[in-house]
Amino acid sequence: MDKTLPSPARQAGASDDSQARLDRLADLSRRLLASARAQGASQAEVSCSEESGLNVNVRMGAVETVEATRDRGIAVTVYFGKRKGTASTADLREDSLESTVAQACAIARHTEDDAAAGLAEPELMAVPPADGRWPEFDGWHPWAIEADEAVDLALACEQAGRERDPRIANSDGASFGSGSSLGVYANSHGFIGRERSTQHSIGCALIAGSGDEMQREGWYSIALAAGDLEDPAAIGRKAAERTVSRLAPRQLATGEYPVLFASEVARSLVGHLLGAVSGGALYRRASFLLDSVGTQLLPDWFGIDERPFLTRGFRSSAYDGDGVATRDSALVAGGVLQHYVLGTYSARRLGLQTTGNAGGVHNLQVAANTGDLNEMLRGMGRGLLVTELMGQGVNAITGDYSRGAAGFWVEGGELQYPVDGVTVAGNLKAMFKAIEAVGTDVDPRSHIATGSILVGRMTVAGETPED
Known about the structure:
This protein has 10 helices and 17 strands. Helix 4 packs parallel to helix 5 (232-244). The protein folds into 2 domains: 15-244, PmbA/TldD fold; 249-467, no CATH class. The mean pLDDT is 95. The chain is of the alpha+beta class. The protein is globular. It has helices spanning 8-12, 18-38, 94-109, 147-164, 232-244, 263-276, 279-283, 344-350, 373-380, 428-433; strands spanning 43-59, 62-80, 83-89, 168-187, 192-208, 215-223, 255-261, 304-306, 329-333, 336-337, 364-366, 383-390, 400-411, 414-427, 435-438, 448-449, 453-461.
């Protein structure tokens, strides 16, 4: 089965009414803001969204599900001084919209004052270009694909994987997804932001071996434009190769070893750092990195930059969830934390100013200090390469880290055999300082762009020697 991805011209389809739909959402937002003002709100904000998509799942050459989705959401938030109320609806009938605003106002009138409540300051609002069109950073690539075509792509992916190696005994299925979203955020400062984006994916999970010796692994590709996806057959073959490579795993003796986190799991370490320096955790005093701005958290060569304006970035945007202008910035420079990750509300709770991160970060890039994965394996020499993490054993308050892991044992800078059923443990503060290298082998499937990360020493719990 030979199935290829479409050309750029084929992706767009015959017509694209997204700008007209954004215009309608913007007009709706203005009407809702006017209604909130008429009902006595001192400030108000509105979020309107439309999403549509096609999702397909196949298994063992047969179709399991085909689902077309179309969703809409409208949320109205009003402020009466420092009192806040929010209500939402998916119904565009005029009486329903008016009722939604009225509900938000009623809630606000019955809540307690919150000193941190309210819109961001007007002078912090992002300003659109002179033509009034917000930059899109090449993130809009709709795919006019029919359900039978999507099914064929998923089947081709799974078939290529199943045929790759005779040890592939079963399949957990292949999937295809394509979706688009439109969003308008508006507030009573006069700000009206408009965004549209697309996202497409193909993935496959396979099973090798039998009985107690079975191993499951997979691979997937995700992109904003269909033409940037990996070939479906290549995805299936890579899923097969990853699956059979895990057959006949061994355990390790419990001990302390260097641990190299492959790029597809290394971004979770950056995610733990983000969680600890984000406003919600900080003002709740639920972070192991309280009072950490300006302190050395990582080696002096380590850096993380935020890049909101990347072309085809997964989280590119000119403004955040509060309408505040985003900006390029260094989150970590020379191993030192430069600032927290704050939206308007959390910043006020902490007595600080927003960093333009309401709703999260926008495209993080972790600086590399070495070469690709093979070079990192040679540099490590002996230790554990982790390719999968399991469980949620991370304590956000203390930083204690303990997660199930699978991967490969490395000797002489080369993979020796697969490893399963081990636990890697440490404390995130110590782990961050013990990072020895970041590779150039960046996994492109996330807004957190990092290569593999080598932590010089961690506890690996495996077999306990008998007395």
